[in-house]
Amino acid sequence: MGLFHEFRQFTVRGSAVDMGVGMVLGAAFSGFIDSLVTDILLPPVGLLYAKVNFEEMFFNLSGGFYPTLSAAKEAGAVTINYGLFLTAAVRFMIILFAVFLVVRQINRWKKPHQHPLHAMTKKECPYCCTPIPSQAVICPNCGSQLEQNFNKIEQPKTRWNIK
């Protein structure tokens, strides 16, 4: 399974702990990621697009002409700053990918024999309806024995205690 397939699964099926770790890491690395995006990643992309500065891309809704976003803000013009939004979107994707890599590694440290995707996926206990790990055999909440193979029909075993 590829790294990007795992990343897609992580973004779709993250748990509350994973999201909490993401919030903490996002706050801790925000200055670093901001510098990475604005100072390193976006200038070459802007160079490819005819030397465009993403932070100066905006629509003016007030009707006047302003050469820069700072001039429009000083004049009090109403603007839609789509360049700043693109910068924030790139920053968000980088933070999300970094959090994914950290959580993926933490899951490997917790259970080194288990695939990281299995650690992130959950199933519902048929008895108590709480989410449990997908590989669980016994529900940790209610203690009920979960069936391994749904195709296999088990006959109840009778025990005879003869003395």
Automatic annotation (TrEMBL):
<comment type="similarity">
    <text>Belongs to the MscL family.</text>
</comment>
<dbReference type="InterPro" id="IPR001185">
    <property type="entry name" value="MS_channel"/>
</dbReference>
<feature type="transmembrane region" description="Helical">
    <location>
        <begin position="82"/>
        <end position="103"/>
    </location>
</feature>
<feature type="transmembrane region" description="Helical">
    <location>
        <begin position="12"/>
        <end position="33"/>
    </location>
</feature>
<dbReference type="Pfam" id="PF01741">
    <property type="entry name" value="MscL"/>
</dbReference>
<dbReference type="GO" id="GO:0008381">
    <property type="term" value="F:mechanosensitive monoatomic ion channel activity"/>
</dbReference>
<protein>
    <recommendedName>
        <fullName>Large-conductance mechanosensitive channel</fullName>
    </recommendedName>
</protein>
<keyword id="KW-0813">Transport</keyword>
<keyword id="KW-0472">Membrane</keyword>
<keyword id="KW-1003">Cell membrane</keyword>
<keyword id="KW-0407">Ion channel</keyword>
<keyword id="KW-1133">Transmembrane helix</keyword>
<dbReference type="InterPro" id="IPR036019">
    <property type="entry name" value="MscL_channel"/>
</dbReference>
<keyword id="KW-0812">Transmembrane</keyword>
<comment type="function">
    <text>Channel that opens in response to stretch forces in the membrane lipid bilayer. May participate in the regulation of osmotic pressure changes within the cell.</text>
</comment>
<dbReference type="GO" id="GO:0005886">
    <property type="term" value="C:plasma membrane"/>
</dbReference>
<comment type="subunit">
    <text>Homopentamer.</text>
</comment>
<keyword id="KW-0406">Ion transport</keyword>
<dbReference type="InterPro" id="IPR037673">
    <property type="entry name" value="MSC/AndL"/>
</dbReference>
